[in-house]
UniProtKB/TrEMBL annotation:
It comes from Echeneis naucrates (Live sharksucker). Belongs to the sulfotransferase 1 family. The gene is LOC115046329. It is an enzyme of class 2 (transferase). This is Sulfotransferase. It is found in: Cytoplasm.
Amino acid sequence: MDLPPRPTLFDFHGVSMTKYFTDNWDNVQNFKARPDDILIATYPKSGTTWVSYILDLMHFGDKCSDRETSIPIYLRVPFLEICVPSLESGKDLADKLTTTPRLIKTHLPVQFVPKSFWENNCRIIYVARNAKDTAVSYFHFDRMNHVQPEPGDWSNFLQKFMQGKMVFGSWYDHVTGWWEKKETYSKLHYMFYEDLTEDSGREIDRLCTFLGLPLSAAAKEAVRTGVTFDSMKQNTMTNYSTILIMNHNVSPFMRKGKVGDWKNHFTVSQNECFDEDYNKKMKNPTLKIRTEL
Ligand code: A3P
C-alpha cells in the first residue's frame, strides 16, 4: 500500500481539521445511528483504544472468542469520521457491523456529532485525559502516524497544542464542550483516563452500571486482566501493529500508558507557561482533571 501524504490543517467551522476527517462529511453527518449503538467519544490520545477494548470485552468477550483473536480493534470499533485513501471509511465499516450493540468511536467535538445519535438517545461514553499527558502522547503519535500532520519539534508542538491547532481542534474546548453536554444529556458517561489508571476495576463497575450490563464478578475480572497496558501492548489485535499508516519503529502506539509522563517532556518554563494559559482557558471549576496520581 502507498502511504497517503501527510495532510495539512485547515479551519473547518471553527475547528482545526484535516481532509482525512472531513472528506466524508455529509455521509458522516447523515449516519443512521440505532438506539442501542454505543458511541465512544474522546479527544485523540485520551485512552480511546483502552475503553474501546474494555467495552468490546464486556459485550463480546465470552461469546465470540474468534472476534478477540482475529479482528483488530479498529475494525470491531470503527472510527466513524475517518476517510483515508485505500482504507475503508469508518462510516462504511460502521454500517456493515452485524453485532449488537455496535461500538463506534469518534473524536468529533460535541457540536459535530451526527444528530441521529442524539435523536436515538444513544449511550455515549466520553473519556478525558489530562492536557499535559495528552499533548505528549499526541506529539509521539503525530511522529509515527502518516495520516497526521508533521508535528515539528516538541516546543513548537506544545505551542500549537495550546493554540488549539491540532487535528480535532482545541483540547480545552473539546473536554469542556462534552462536559457541559452532560447537563442536558443524561445518557452520557464522562470518565477519566487517570481514574481508569488508578482503579480499572472500579471504572469497569461504573461502566456496567451505566450500560445496564449485569456481568458476573468473574467476567469483570477477565475484562480487567485482559485490558492491562502490557497485555494490550502484546496483543496484535489491540496494539495497531497491523495498520500500515503507523510506523511503530518511530514510536509504538502502545507507548507508555502512564499518568505523569509529561514530566519527562515539559521544561520548568514550559510547565509554568502551560499552567498559566490553562487556568485562563479552563473556566469551568467543576471540571478537574488530575495530572498525577
Ligand atoms: P501514551 O502515548 O501516553 O502511552 P488513544 O487510544 O486515544 O489513541 O490513546 C492512546 C494512549 O492510551 C497511549 O498513551 C496509549 O499507550 C494509552 N493506552 C492504551 N491502552 C492503554 C492501557 N491498557 N493502559 C494504559 N494506557 C493505555
